Amino acid sequence: MTRKFALCVFLLLMAGRIVPVNWAQAPASGQGMLPRAEAEEQAAVGSVRTLNTALAMYHAAEPAKGYAATLKELGPEGKGYIEKTLASGTKSGYKFDYRPESVPAGTPVRHYTIVARPVQLLAAGEKSFFTDETGLIRFTNEDRAAKVTDPAI
Predict the structure, then answer these.
(1) What are the residues whose beta carbons fall under 8 Å from the beta carbon of 23, sequence distance 6 or more?
(2) Of 17, 22, 49, 118, whose Cβ has the fewest other Cβ atoms within 10 Å?
(3) Cβ atoms within 10 Å, residue 25
(4) What's the CA gap between 83 and 115, in Å, rounded?
(5) If you write DSSP's letter for every residue of 53-77 in order, what string do you get?
(6) How far is it, in rounded angstroms, from Cα 130 to Cα 133?
(7) What kind and span of H or E run contains 42?
(8) For residue 9, what are the CA distances in angstroms to 24, 52, 95?
(9) What DSSP element (H or E) covers 117?
(10) How much is the average pLDDT of 62-77?
(11) Which strand ranges, in their side-by-side order, compose the sheet holding 128-132?
(12) What 3-state DSSP class applies to 11?
């Protein structure tokens, strides 16, 4: 599994689906943002990337199923691609709402969305994040779920 994981990560990097964030060029955090809130945002972006990678690995390993039906399928009770905490849907102050497309039984899942929102707002302007199977991560500073039309990080 380790070689397979490394290969998937390499392929995703080469395909541009995993893009390192240059936080110096990312949109500025809210004025007076608490260090904890900033740390939680950075952790959330890392978790969203981890989920995108795990879902790509699952998709490659299970082409007849496509993407996983739940985050638990990616965790230790499933394929073991992600840790138990992230598989629960909450980590580092963020709630991760994973939604695979609804398909008839026996049809592979080809699309998904993930929305990451703060469990509790710690500072004004704290970001929410959105991603889908493209791997592009989008954000909003508004007190709402990020969506596909929001700017990319």
Answers:
(1) 42
(2) 22
(3) 7
(4) 18
(5) HHHHHHHHH-TTTBS-SSGGGGSTT
(6) 11
(7) helix 35-61
(8) 24, 10, 24
(9) strand 112-118
(10) 94
(11) 90-91, 94-100, 112-118, 128-132, 138-140
(12) helix
